[in-house]
Design goal:
The protein is mainly alpha-helical. It is built from 4 helices and no strands. The longest helix has 17 residues.
Length: 65
């Protein structure tokens, strides 16, 4: 069936990782958040939003310490 083909592109997984990353980011668990965004980049290396959020998190980590 077609629906199986659509989920194999990782988009459901990306959504799941994105939600987890944002949740961790909001709790100031920046390293954990970054690891989830990196998982998205493993699925989709050109995923701009993840790249931008990783940068944000790295800046936040510097300010947080």
């Amino acid at each position: 069936s077609r629906s199986k083909i659509n989920t194999s592109d990782g988009s459901e997984l990306k959504k799941k990782y994105w939600k987890r990353a944002v949740r961790e980011y909001n709790k100031a668990n920046y390293e954990k958040a970054i690891s989830y965004w990196e998982k998205i980049l493993d699925i989709d290396p050109g995923h701009k939003p993840s790249l931008q959020r990783i940068e944000q998190a790295q800046k936040a980590m510097k300010n947080y310490r």
